[in-house]
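Justification of resources, computational component.

The compute hours requested in this renewal are based largely on the per-chain cost of generating structure records like the one below. Each record pairs the submitted sequence with a full structure-token output. That output is archived, and it is also reused by downstream analysis tasks.
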Amino acid sequence: MSMYAKDDIRSALATAAPEKAIDPSTPVKPAQWIEFLSHEPTEIGEHGSRTWTARAANLVLSYTEAKSGEVFSRSAQPDEYAILLYSESSPLHIVAGSESVSIGEEAFVVVPPGDSAITVMADGILIRLFSAMADDLREGALNAAAYAEPDLRAAPLEPWPDPVGGFRLRTYPLADTPVIPGRFGRIFRTTNLMVNFLAEEPAPRERTKLSPHFHEDFEQISLAVKGSFVHHIRYPWGPDSTQWRPDEHRQIETPSICIIPPPTVHTTQGVGRHQQLIDIFSAPREDFSASGWVLNADDYPSK
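The structure output for this chain reads:
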């Protein structure tokens, strides 16, 4: 459900009904604000790369200050994963099975299941997204304790159909799909997640043009890679008033994520001089998929 202004392109989205009715007494998870550099790294590589891994209900995100020469391998990876490249990302050489690619520009990359290796060609940032099927990453996440009890309001991950032509290494340079009027951001999906590369904002967001809305049964993970943001969260009132929470309006610096639980009303406000946000969802969103905005829909069929 939305509270978008009429001139917000998302106001026309069809709202997908939840898979099943949710008892209003079901607990709502607290939102999580995670500034990576305020935590100890979850992993330090042989070349000095520092990685912070955090999880959501269905997703694991690894953010790395990568050093040239570092290799990040996955062996017998159970499902595909994604790499996000933005303007400050390291150039990479990626090998997956018999395929390989070198890329040094902004892009969305999908790595197939099985064995793979990412070699960092120069210092920079490496961002990887996995489903929660990756047991080692999920259990080693810096916020693993937040999911000691599952989020009963978040629908479990059910993979979407296999990609056309089967699983393989796929690269989608962002230069091929610039931000244009009439389409919201730059949205890509895989069988297990969806990513929206939002436009960089060269000024603070206008306070009178925010977009509060909520999701009935899925989390939103907002990854802030540039600038400074305030995430505004409003918790619903259930029948148990002892569980009510006050609104939250918290500023967070980058790099960071805010994990926004269902069904909180939320909106994010860029307050820095220049900022960039990337929104992540797992499983893929049905409303965005139905909108015609998904840029790799020809490769990845809808549910």
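The chain has one domain: 9-290. The CA atoms of residues 91 and 104 lie 4 Å apart.
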